[in-house]
């Protein structure tokens, strides 16, 4: 890109852009980008639009044009709503009740196979811990011992 392309187009160049002249056809994309990004370019464009306003064609019935656009927009909205309504239906395997049924069946299978028995420690492990004092009991002993030492 050369420096000429990076510069903000002048009011005359904007007027040529509005008219659709061939002289600015190679810079059209750049000029449209400048309109979106640069406030100074937008101001120059608005000035050029005021200068060229008399040369622009006039709509014969602006109300009719507005109505035509609104009917086209309204027609496309109903299609979008209709498509969204069709997408709301869930498939049978996406239903919550199906997932609960699968979870219940798997739980019953695991129970009958004895898999949950393997998760818990055996009876010898329980007896070993029954002989030992629990952590909370040890904590109470330490705390009461500390308080007894403070008392005279």
In words, what does this structure look like?
By secondary structure, this protein is mostly helical. The protein is 73% helix and 0% strand. The protein has helices at residues 3-6, 11-19, 28-37, 39-52, 62-87, 96-113, 115-119, 123-131, 135-150. Helix 2 (11-19) crosses helix 4 (39-52) and helix 3 (28-37) crosses helix 4.
Topology:
Layout: H1 3-6, H2 11-19, H3 28-37, H4 39-52, H5 62-87, H6 96-113, H7 115-119, H8 123-131, H9 135-150
Q: In a few lines, what is going on in this structure?
A:
This protein has nine helices and no strands. It has helices at residues 3-6, 11-19, 28-37, 39-52, 62-87, 96-113, 115-119, 123-131, 135-150. The mean pLDDT is 80.
Summarize model confidence as the mean pLDDT: 80
Number of helices, counting only DSSP H or I runs of 4 residues or more: 9
Low-confidence stretches: none
Shape verdict: elongated
First CA to last CA: what distance? Answer: 92 Å
Helix/strand order, N-terminal first? HHHHHHHHH
The structure class reads: mainly alpha
Biggest sheet layout:
none
Computed CA radius of gyration, to the nearest angstrom: 40 Å
Give the tally of β-strands: 0
Features:
152 residues; mainly alpha; 73% helix
């Amino acid at each position: 890109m050369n420096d000429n392309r990076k510069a903000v187009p002048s009011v005359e160049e904007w007027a040529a852009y509005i008219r659709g002249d061939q002289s600015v056809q190679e810079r059209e994309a750049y000029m449209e980008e400048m309109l979106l990004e640069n406030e100074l370019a937008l101001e120059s464009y608005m000035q050029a639009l005021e200068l060229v306003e008399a040369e622009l064609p006039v709509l014969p019935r602006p109300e009719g044009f507005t109505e035509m656009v609104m009917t086209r927009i309204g027609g496309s909205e109903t299609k979008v709503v209709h498509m969204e309504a069709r997408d709301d239906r869930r498939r049978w395997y996406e239903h919550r009740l199906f997932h609960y049924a699968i979870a219940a069946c798997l739980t019953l299978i695991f129970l009958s196979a004895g898999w949950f028995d393997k998760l818990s420690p055996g009876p010898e492990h329980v007896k070993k811990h029954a002989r030992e004092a629990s952590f909370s009991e040890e904590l109470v002993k330490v705390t009461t011992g500390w308080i007894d030492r403070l008392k005279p």
